[in-house]
Amino acid sequence: MVLAEHSKPSAPVLSHFSLAGKTALVTGASRGIGLEAARGLLEAGATVAITYSSTPELEVASTVASLSSIQSQPGTSPVKAYKLNVTSRDEVFKVTQQAADEIGHGSLDIVVANAGIAYHIPAEDYPEDKFRQLLDVNLNGAFWTAQAAANVMKAAAETKSGSRRGSIIFTASVSGILVNVPQKQAAYNASKAGVIHMAKSLAVEWTDFARVNCVSPGFIATDMLSVHPKEWRDKWFSLIPGGRLCEPAELKGSYVYLASEASSYMTGANLVIDGGYTLP
After folding, report:
1. Which of left, alpha, beta for 227 (phi over 0: left; psi -120 to 50: alpha)?
2. CATH code of the domain covering residue 66
3. 99-134 pLDDT tens trace
4. What is the DSSP letter of 47?
5. What's the number of CA atoms in the CB half-sphere (13 Å) around residue 205?
6. 220 near 37, Cβ under 8 Å?
7. How far apart are CA 249 and CA 32, in angstroms?
8. Is 188 a catalytic residue?
9. Residue span of the structural domain in which 63 resides
10. Of residues 30, 107, 173, 191, which has the active-site annotation?
11. pTM, whole model, 2 decimals?
12. Of the residues 192, 252, 263, 277, which is catalytic?
């Protein structure tokens, strides 16, 4: 098999972005970028499951209700949420298969590996436990998610004579292609650089049954940034040609693009969305 062809490239362009009849799993999607990615996939017509780790159950229930209310495609299942520790390979495989069975009749078309954490600690002082934890979530967890997705997607492609191919999308970061200042975050930067190159490698290995791409956001207006010192934020604004932070909802279109046939010939790419931050 080869990279799947677009089902109808001559169709009107907006139809290329439709996810009607598709199923998706988004990790770390109870808030922030993951939540908006899930919302975008739903708005494009997909049936979506999300995962969370530490978000309170009442907040998760409210989020699920909110997401379920935007579904517009007939026959879609309610949004499902699964508690998941992405550092556990067994848990990742179990939840991925459960989601596939419950919303996708045994398969998934789209998996977004989004779960991540960040610490800002000088490299010479970095505690071993926090270094290992960050890499375990951001890099190992992303790999377990992609690996579980690949097994589900490969089986679907084989049983359906290759008619069903998947899309795996990693949430990486501009931190994987440059060194941010003034914060000190060598471990985070290394983890995201690893994700980007891992995605490129998997794109080559998995061409027969899935496309693999990355979204690399710049500075996004999430809870992760709001807790930082004012002098850090002032420095960031001075370095962003766009002159502002990005709202999380501004990213959802990029996930829909990579999940849909609009990007049918794109694999191994790193889509940088940063207001020009990486340009100067």
Report:
1. alpha
2. 3.40.50.720
3. 999 999 999 999 999 999 999 999 999 999 999 999
4. E
5. 12
6. no
7. 9
8. yes
9. 17-273
10. 173
11. 0.95
12. 192
